[in-house]
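Question (not urgent): is this output format expected?
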Amino acid sequence: MASEADLQDIPLDVDDSDTTPNVPNGKGDSADSNAAPKASQLPDNGVSSGDKLERSSSVVDRIMGHSPGDTLKQLAYLEILMADERESVTDRDVVDAVLNALVGEKFDLENNFLVRSSVNVRHLLKFMNHCSEKLQAEIWSMLSGILRKSRRNLLAFTEAHFIQYILERIDSCSPMIGDLLMDMMTVLAGYSITVHELQLLFTKLKAVDNEWPQCAPKLLKVLQQMPARHGPDEFFSFPGSEQAAIALPPMCPQKWPYQLGWSFSLWLCLDPFAGVSIEQEKPFVFCFQTKSGMGYSAHFMGSILVITSNRGPGKGFQGSLNFNFEPRKWYHVCLAYVYNRWKTSLIRCYVNGSLISTIDMPWFVSTSENFDKCYIGAAPGLQAVNAFCGEMSSIYMFNEALSTVTVEALYQLGPAYKGQFIYGNESPAHVNEVTKRIIYDGKLTNSIILMYTPVACDTHICLDSTPTNNQTLFMHSPHAVMMSDVKAVVTHSIHSTLHSLGGIQMLFPLFHQLDCAKEETVEDDRSVCTTLFDLLCDLLKNSDTLQQQMIQSRGFLVISHLLEETANRRQGHHKRASPQHLTAHTVGCIIGLIKHFTMLPSAGALIRHISDHLLFNPSLWIHADPQVQMMLYEYLASEYLVLIPFQTNPLRRVSTVLQIVHSIKHYYWVVNPQPLSGIKPRGTVKARPSEEEIIQIRGLLLAFIDRVISSSKEILEDELQCLLNFASTVSEAENLYDVLHLLVLFMIHLPSSMVPLFDAKNGLRVVFKLLESGTEAIRIQALKLLGHFLSRSTSRRKAECMDKSNLFSLLGVKLIASDTHLSMNIYNVLSEILVERMANQIVTEPHPPFRSEEHIIQNPGILKVIAKIICQSKPCDELDDVRKLFLDDLIALCEDNEDNRRTILQMSVWQDWLFSLAEVYPQTPINTQISADVMELFRILLYHAIRLEFGGWRVWIDTLSILHTRVTYEDFNIQMRKAYREYTESTQVTAASGSQLTQHGSQKQAGAMPKFPAFRIPEFRWSHLHQRLVADVLFSIEEELAEWRSGDEQKLMDAVNSSENATFVMNTVNLVSNLSDVLITAVGGLLPLLSAATTSSGEVDVLEPGYGLSIEKSVSLLQRVLNLADMMVITSGFSVSELETEKNMTPGTMVRQCLRIVLTMSVRNTLDCRYQAGTLSPARQHLSARNGGDRSGNPLKALVEGTRSNLEEAESARIGLTDPIANIEHLLQESDVARLRAVLYREADDMKQAEWIAMSIIYFVSVLMVSKYRDILEPVTTPDSSANTPIFPPASEEDQSQAISAGQSQDVSADQSQDVSADISEESQPQEAAAGQLKEPHEAKSSTSPSPSKRSNRSVSPYKGSESEDDEPAATTQSVVADVHIPAVHTSALKTASDEKPLSSDAQTSQVSADQLEPVPDGELTENSQTEDTSTAEDTSTAEDSSKAEDSSLTEDTSKVEDSSAAEDSSKADDTSAAEDSSKADDTSAAEDSSKAEDSSLTEDTSKVEDSRHECSRRF
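Got this back:
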């Protein structure tokens, strides 16, 4: 025998390109790719070719000639020759002799390679024990090839228990022999393996001393290939030889199903000889014929199935299937014969459930002869050329032509089904319910007329399994006979064998051995895990029984636990981590298994187990290769739910979401959560993915959660609670941001379920907790979550959630505490919440401009939040941009949208936060522009209130009051800062001087900090902002009226009297009423002006306080108010009675106010005429002023220029402002006369009121006439160049300080007043200059204002407002001082006059004099001058008192009119605050002056009139 060393030189790969001649029997086949080498091609050990051929032939012939047909004797003889004639018997001779003995004839790899019987294989195995390894290798390599060429050879070796033979010798054989045996075992195990053989295989896989056996990897690969088999375990085997067939008993022709048709169904597998001749070989599948040859048959011609219908001699018809049948592959074939009485019959041919061909059959077979030539697998005559070579199973014949859906259902049952279609639980698990209803409806089982299965056989008898009650075709017994070598074969697949050993649990110990040691020659251990997963997946895919075992044993949980336990064990031994077993191939196996189970209707439990214990187990994957993890989670995020919808699959959705969130929180964290959140991190023992990879994995997991929840179109309560818990317990921004963004997405896409659950779970608490984060990105996402919640909530829900707990205020507090200023990003989100137009992305740049027609204010509380944050933020450039953008947005929202304007006006104290955005004294261009924007916004809102809102004039009053508080508080702060700075400086000086005195033995302590007074709202004054505000509002009203007029006075009157404009007219009249008395007083008062107009020099001793308004500005505004009064009251038919009732006025009060305006402007016009005519005395053109008068300029010139400033504007003509002076020679101008006439005739229906007005006008005209007579009689000389030089010098500083100290607050001393006044005077200069900067943007807006034809609420007043020359820094300084110290005129000046009594009958006959127009003192005025109040109602009392005083001058009887001394005493009483003394003085003075007044008359000379007028001016 050859030595083991010689075997290493033998080549195993032998070329089989040469062919062997065909044997005489004509059976052959083409070369197979897996064919073994030919015996003639083996090496010859150095023998020459001639001798080799001769010697080989002689030895082989001798062996074949010895006991032909007896394999045992031939092999025994061969063994003898090998021992006796060692030199003459070559290895090639031995191989040829062995192969010849196996096949029983001359072996040929192409035509004669079938093993005769399993007995020959057993003899061969015994013979192999006496062969050398070299010879064994040659024989095994040849046998491995012939095993793959025929399934009959597999059957022979299986019956010889060849697998057991291999397993018993695998440990002792060499690696080369072992590889050959494993190759043969792989082929055989896929065909059949017994329980004993599988048990022996598992025994060989058991680890010994914590080490894998050497053959374990090879056996695992064999085990992996076992499930890869197709076809049934039981089948009929046809050898393809003569007389080999299944013979059926005769059939009765009368029972043949002609009318309904019939069908023939079976599973078959072709296993032909190689090199079969198509012309000669025609293996039949079935044949049902009579003795005369009539009937039906089907046979193969090559790989094509041919159908034959023979009606008689020469009347046959054939058709073929357009399908190519491959050898050694199972097919389901069904032929449905359809009978048609009136048209051509046909045959429907199905392969694997699909209709392949439809063959027209012109004739159907009709005969009275019995079908006595019926065979399966052969034709009549039973010749070898017509014998079927292969396998068949599940042979059925039905008495109807099966439909397509029924045939497809039969195919779904598979080749293993051999039932009668009665019990549904017989069907495999993958069959769906529709298929079951088709098959098990009872119709199919009743139509069976022939049924043969390999499991119903007894020796050579094949029992008919047709249901008992069904119709039968046979003449007698229906059982068939298996002839010759046809047999029923029963094989054992790995599925059935494994079930006998204990089921799928037999594989679990193999997972426990994954980390056992292996030799260096063994492949890497990661392939072991991959192999086991492949085996597991293949077993589960092909066996319903193993699937149920896997569920019942919770196999995936066991496997997961074993993998984790292995990891812990490896950590203890400090070896490579177990996650290295989890490769991409492993993930692919799991994914493939899930995809397969998704097609099974009853595999939901398996999918759930795989998901819970493998896919969603982070501890199993956290240390695996990051690419493997991303591969797994990409599948979850993309394909998993496409194949497994949660709506139809019993997956535990809530637990899945909770498990994924738990994984993100404890395993896939970006930053260690232990320090801040206190969460114990997991997965830190071994190497983790990088931070970027962790972020990608988190994104995939969150995408999976998104698809899980979004697939059902709703979020569940527990799912939302889980996400909210995550957001409230995780503090690290890196670990929180993506989860918070997912919550926002759910709020966007699932509002119907998200909003109520978010409210019920107190999600707003989480939002406000997140607003405390130090990371802006988290705060932005929290605000977006809040915004989407509010935008999708009902009004009631928003009110209950936000307004009930005042959460908008809390929102501002949280945002202020989180950052130093309001950033652009935060503002963009807040603006989105304001209009509920939430963007899905974070906007870092200023958002696009709002469009008022599209953007509606939905959450007005956000406005106050934004303003509050801006005011409390640290100044910076970004904050200025945000503030400017905020104002632009507000203007855009309010400009053309009534709803937005109304929403803001309905807010509580909206003026306060809006004024807080502007600076009273802006110092920079950006602040100047912001202040201008704030004033523009006030113009829009106030105009809307007056134009459209009932009672909108009250908003105007409140706005002036709040603005007054704002301005005075700013002035107070300026004073306090200045005082504190001076105190600090003085303290430093004192400390320095004290150190010097210490050297001389004396010490001096720094003075204690003085006690600064608390802020108290002073009396009302018109600041530059007030003036700007009233000018803008008046212009808006004038623009509206100009549009009404449009050149037609009648159109204007119609608009004023229209009910649609009633609200606008009433609010405007109220505005006129509120402004009239204030402006009259500001220009000097009616009586002082009348006194100046009726004197020759225009002299007046005292000018009434102007509330901070210059004379020129007051005249300008008064002219515009008069213009409004003309259109709204004087010349219109609008009834003011309702307004008077609302304001608790006596009837006619409003008309009397209008009369005072007309009279005041008429006096001003008279002064203007005299000024232009030069009839005023040069020495008296400068008036002494007090508390608001013009100190430096010419007041008469200011009175004249006040109207000139209005006329200089471009819009003056369009809005109805014209030059009131038409002729300077007239006593009254035509416009004044027209107004007086209109006022008189307006109240013509009320006789008493009309008489009073007429008498007042007569008095007024009479006074002017007397002065005119005087001017005619005593003309004034022409003024010289010194006319502009004042005769009286300006008031000294001492006088000013005395005036200031007379009205200062009790909390401030006179010394402090003087010091602080000087300080404010110094500090206010830059502020006044800044206030003057408002003119530039104001005028810029005026130049670009829209055309008059377009009605725009954002049109800006072209009037200068606060930019007049009289509002220079000196005036502003005086205003600041007065606001802090002087209780000049209370804010009650804003109110209208109170009830007035009509003129008595006695007054109608009284004489006319200048003293009669002097106002009667009122005790209420004195009382109000002593009281300081912050309310708007009380602030307007002074104006009412002034109105009463002037009305009294025109309405009281003659005695009271002449009571000028009483007014003087009342004024003194006011200054001393002694009400009781004043009352007594009034009574005394009234009696004295009354007697004097009765002696006066109009006939006195000019000198007496002059004296009387001087006395009137002095007393006033």
